[in-house]
Amino acid sequence: MQDNRSFYFVILQRHTNTVTMTGNAYQTHRDTGFKMHTSQQHSFRTNRQSLRLTVARNRLARSLMLLRVAMSSLFLTWMMTTLGGQIAYADTGPKNTIENVLLFQRSSGGWPKNYDRRQPMTDELRQRVSAQRPAGDATFDNSATHEELRILARSIPTTDDDRLVPAFLRGLDFTLDAQYENGGWPQRPGETRDYGRHITFNDDAMIGVLSLLTDIAQRKSDFKFVDESRRLRCERAVKLGIQCILRCQITVGDKKKAWCAQHDEVTFAPRRARTYELPSVSGYESVGIIRYLMTIKDPDPEVIDAITTAVEWFESAKLEGIRLKRIENPGLPGGRDRVVVLDESAPPVWARFYDLETDQPIFCSRDGVPRKNLAEISHERRNGYSWLGNYAGRLLTTEYPAWRKFLSQPE
Prior knowledge:
This protein is mainly alpha-helical. It contains twelve helices and twelve strands.
């Protein structure tokens, strides 16, 4: 395997190991404790006085801790009685979550992303959100829509709220209608110009949708209320979606690799999203795709081949002997930075993106220029995005071997 570490500009720093002992009055400092207990130069009275002093310090520390707890309790009580609990407790429970899910559902049937499902709502906020119902911002990005549908489904058996089933079915219809004829799902249904129209695996968008529809098609317990007509639609959508995944798998020459975070909705070719998310082989999103494919019952040879070849690619693309480290650097924004350091004992890591042809890791700032080293991109992107991680660690060591073993078992 080619040594991918050579593509990193490694910054090595020595760090002095220090130990600070706080909070335990019985703990003895290393430089004085041995003498205190064993030296014949100390009398019994000295030892007894030292012990008394230690006990007194411990009692004082405990009293201060109890005082802080009491003051905190009084402060929270004041907040709850004076401010109505709106600041003290942001999570007002499942009831509040359901109300927000219903409130934020768009007229299209889908949901926007990144709103707070547990946020307590004032009348003013409720009116403001209601006015946004016609907005065309429903999406599958960041778990939006498919997660709301799961929340609603889990709540239906436990409440007699007759709003939940219609809201769920509107969201399910929106999800099914958003599927392309070739089986893929865009990030943002209705988008025609930007990358939101592409078949999107980024942040598990399409895999989240497929997992939901698979559970409905298989009559999982949370979804038994779904009518047979819609269940059959889910079944057909899943089959088309799996075929789309297989067509999107990147092949260079005669070698199958993995998947890009997004693919062209017509040609299935890898496509760019944001300026720093270039056409590439994804070391992150591809893990979720493989995991989903491994859940398919009685997989056909095409699915088995896609899983096997993608895992082989992951084996060849792993980066060993390096570790991503966060360091303190007061001269930089936020006083911190991320650097890659040599560490032969570190578990393997994978890059978020790999060059389509060479399989070398690529990193990118907002200027859209690919670079070979994490250290070469801007501090803002280096610290504001996941570029390296043990993404496929559990997949390769545990999940894939278990799947192979399952396949080999006689029926």
